[in-house]
Amino acid sequence: MKKIALEEHFVTPDFLKLTQTADFPFMDPKCTSNFQECLLDFDNQRIAAMDRAGIEIAVLSLTDPGAQGQLDKGTAIKLTQQTNDFLAHRISRNPKRFRGFATLPLQDPIAATKELERCIRDYKFLGALINGQTGGLYLDDSRYLPFWEKVQELNVPIYLHPGSPATMSDSYNGHPELSGALWGWTAETATHTLRLIFSGLFDRCPGLTLILGHMGETLPFLLWRLDSRWAILKQPRKLKKSPSQYIKDHVYVTTSGMCSNGPLLCALQELGENRIMFATDYPYESIDIATKFIEQAPLSEEVRQHICYRNAQRLFPLAAEAHAAIAK
Fold first, then answer.
1. Is residue 325 predicted with pLDDT exceeding 50?
2. Distance of CA 308 to CAs 1, 5, 150, 297, 311, Å?
3. Going by CATH, does the domain composed of 3-327 fall within 3.30.1490.480?
4. Domain ranges of the chain
5. How does pLDDT run across 150-174, given as a tens digit for each residue?
6. What is the chain's percent helix, strand, coil content, to nearest 5?
7. How many angstroms from the chain centroid is the CA of residue 212?
8. pTM, full prediction
9. Which residues are catalytic?
């Protein structure tokens, strides 16, 4: 079945050292060598893997920690512009197969807003992918409100990808295996999303759309409890909806890095077939495994089509060429 894949990573030489320093030390060196090769490749292994999987369009995004791992504001602004130029050039070499998410220098909210607008206007990127908090600032901080207002105006989604927390919890002490992708990133990203909800952001900007990977970072499993516990709290601010309703109305989830029927069926039941999209988390997960999973999942063919490509078609109004390619 044809597919649009939403969380497919790359790296540039400028950001490679950050990735090697932040993520690779926790991984088996035999794996990181292959990951690095795949992240830098756009033409050979990547296209071959896409062809095997029936992925017609891959939406490319800079791998973790990306711009969020850069400490210096000026350097972050410069490198994100160069990265987006680089990605646009790579897409232009193979426009039938690739689209892009922008990389943003959220160290400076004004610069990030301008860079997002540039990438949507000049490069027709489909939105942006953000790797968690930036320099200790989470996206519910009031300094980011003009950014969110511009996101709403541009009518593009933000893919909130996992990243490391600003400070590490003592609960991880002595267990470095818990702090990253195995568990810590899930807890961090779910918490980040809930911060956005409970800050009232979606009441201020009701047109916003978030995308979460890994089948929703556990949130679909917790919707009933979020509402139950919110109802008995001394609520610090008034919200127009229940917590679960904000997730149902403003969040899409992807299958990236979660090739299991149980979480898929939970997400379907809680969010509905129109809120789930296909992704592989390339190269950190196997495209072949992700493809086999979605093609053999206990779904009707209509629902499978929604997940594999139709929902992505509906979400991205700027992806006209992608829509035409999938329709052939």
1. no
2. 8, 8, 29, 12, 8
3. no
4. 3-327
5. 999 999 999 999 998 989 899 999 9
6. 55, 10, 30
7. 5
8. 0.95
9. 281
